[in-house]
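Hypothesis: this fold can be encoded by more than one sequence.
Test: take the structure tokens below, design a sequence, compare later.
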């Protein structure tokens, strides 16, 4: 894993010299008589400590790679830590003992004492423990962050799937009702039937053309809602009115495709509508709070269409992909309000 610090080139090059110099100072401090130790282990020997640090660092790095190969996903974290730590300590003792003994024997021309060997092995054994401690802290932090990223990725993918389902959904009830109305119109008035077919084709053309589009405009959504209203008005004797009180300079605002027509249809199917109780659905903008507000007078049917709640929930999930603001439905003073967040796209997103 390239994200683990022991694999970084800068760590492998810069840390051993610093740590080697620190080890040299520790060796001097361990011996009470600094003057005496300097006669045996002179200042130039700091390079030996740096060399030992390089050697031990690369040895422990190879030990980590070996531990990764010997363990799998079924191996517990504790087993992995114990295995890698113990093998690191053993390798540390072997490498340091052989290397420092060879240095004293072949370079200084006398054997290293047992005390000196213990000092070197003790310091570098602690170094091995610190190395593994830093590795495991970094390793499990990396895995935790990676797990969170994967979780976020899965949530994003699920939202994208739900968004796609919301946009691509073809309402079978609307289709069947439209076909039944069309059959009646064909026998009654051919011109009205042609007009009805035109609006029906616009509705489904909008659905099909926006299947692979993330966002449409408010203007397109209003037109789609008007087409839905036009189709359903044939069943309710033109007692449905959809009013969009939106300034022209706001018609470009982005929206999730299918938002307005889906909500308008669900409101119509959940409301008692007749010539004595016409339905007026109004769309307004509330720039202060950043919401589009769809409102209508409450006159719910005794059995409310279950699809109404589902439409709002699907809309909520779809908008959560683009905005932190929720889709809100409120009933107050005999009025039903559905608040849709106004989407604001960053310029860099548009550039993509």
């Amino acid at each position: 894993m390239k994200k683990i610090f022991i694999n970084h080139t800068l760590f492998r090059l810069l840390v051993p010299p610093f740590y080697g110099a620190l080890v040299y100072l520790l060796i001097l401090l361990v011996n009470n008589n600094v003057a005496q130790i300097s006669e045996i282990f002179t200042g130039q020997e700091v390079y030996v400590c740096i060399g030992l640090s390089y050697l031990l660092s690369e040895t422990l790095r190879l030990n980590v790679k070996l531990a990764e190969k010997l363990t799998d996903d079924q191996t517990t974290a504790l087993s992995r830590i114990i295995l890698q730590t113990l093998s690191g300590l053993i390798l540390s003792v072997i490498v340091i003992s052989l290397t420092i003994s060879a240095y004293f024997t072949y370079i200084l021309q006398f054997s290293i004492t047992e005390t000196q060997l213990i000092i070197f092995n003790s310091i570098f054994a602690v170094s091995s423990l610190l190395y593994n401690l830093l590795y495991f802290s970094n390793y499990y932090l990396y895995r935790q962050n990676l797990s969170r990223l994967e979780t976020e990725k899965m949530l994003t993918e699920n939202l994208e799937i739900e968004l796609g389902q919301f946009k691509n959904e073809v309402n079978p009830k609307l289709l069947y009702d439209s076909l039944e109305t069309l059959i009646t119109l064909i026998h009654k008035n051919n011109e009205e039937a042609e007009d009805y077919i035109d609006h029906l084709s616009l509705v489904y053309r909008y659905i099909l053309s926006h299947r692979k589009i993330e966002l449409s405009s408010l203007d397109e959504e209003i037109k789609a809602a008007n087409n839905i209203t036009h189709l359903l008005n044939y069943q309710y004797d033109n007692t449905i009115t959809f009013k969009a009180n939106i300034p022209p300079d706001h018609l470009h605002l982005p929206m999730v495709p299918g938002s307005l027509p889906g909500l308008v249809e669900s409101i119509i199917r959940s409301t008692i509508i007749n010539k004595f109780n016409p339905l007026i659905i109004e769309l307004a903008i509330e720039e202060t709070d950043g919401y589009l507000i769809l409102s209508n007078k409450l006159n719910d049917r005794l059995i409310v269409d279950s699809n109404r709640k589902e439409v709002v929930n699907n809309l909520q999930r779809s908008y959560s992909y683009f905005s932190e603001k929720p889709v809100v439905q409120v009933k107050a003073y005999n009025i039903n309000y559905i608040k849709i967040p106004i989407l604001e796209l960053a310029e860099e997103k548009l550039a993509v």
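The first helix runs from residue 9 to 30. DSSP finds eleven helices and seven strands in the chain.
Hypothesis status: open.
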